[in-house]
Amino acid sequence: MIRVGIIGYGYWGPHIARNFHAADDCEVSVICDKSPAAQGRIQRAYPGVRATCDVSEVLSSPQIDAVAVITPVWTHFELAKAALENGKHVFVEKPFTSTVAQAEQLIELAAKKHLTIMVDHTFLFTGAVKKIEQLTKDGTLASFTTTIPPGSISGCSSTTLTSSGTWHLTTFRSWTTSCIRNRNIWLQPGKAI
Description:
With 193 residues, the chain is of the alpha/beta class. The protein has a single domain, classed as NAD(P)-binding Rossmann-like Domain (Rossmann fold). Helices cover 34% and strands 18% of the residues. The protein has 7 helices and 8 strands. The protein has helices at residues 13-22, 36-45, 56-59, 73-85, 100-112, 127-137, 169-173; strands at residues 2-7, 26-32, 50-52, 66-69, 89-92, 117-119, 145-148, 159-162. α2 (36-45) links the parallel β2 and β3 (50-52). The longest helix has 13 residues, at 73-85. The two termini are 22 Å apart.
C-alpha cells in the first residue's frame, strides 16, 4: 500500500484526493491545508483521513511514501524539494515550477535520490488521447513522436514521447510503477479528474 500525503485542498486538491483515495494500492494518510474551511471539507469528505495545517506533518512523516503538491505555483519548488529531501516520491500539479532552473534542480534531486517526480498532465486521460493510444497500439496509426517540454518528466530535462518508445503514454498512467514497489497509484483509465 502506497501512503500518500496531499498538500493543498483548494480548487484542484479535492479531485486529486478523490483519485488517490480511489486507487486500489493507495492510502491517503493525511491532507494538509492552512484554511480552516478546507480542513472542514477534508474531514467531511474523508472522516478517516487526518487533516492538518502543518505541512511538516506531511513532508517529514516516515508514514508517507509519496507527496502530492496541489498548491499555488510559487510554492511548488520549496514543497517538492523538501519532500524529495525527506525521501518522498512527488506528484506536482502543473505548472511544475516558476522557472526552468527550479524544474531542473528538482529533476536532478529526484534522480540523485532515486525518487519519482511527476507533473500532472490531465490531457493524457482524455478520450481523444486514449483513442490515439489505442489506434497506435492496434496499428491503425503509425508511430508518432512529440517533444515533451523540460521539467515535464522525472529524470529528463527534455524527452521525446513515442508511441513505441520508453515514454509511451501508458508510462504516465503508472508514474510510480518503476519506483514504488511496482504498483500503479496514478489515475486508472476511466477515472479521469
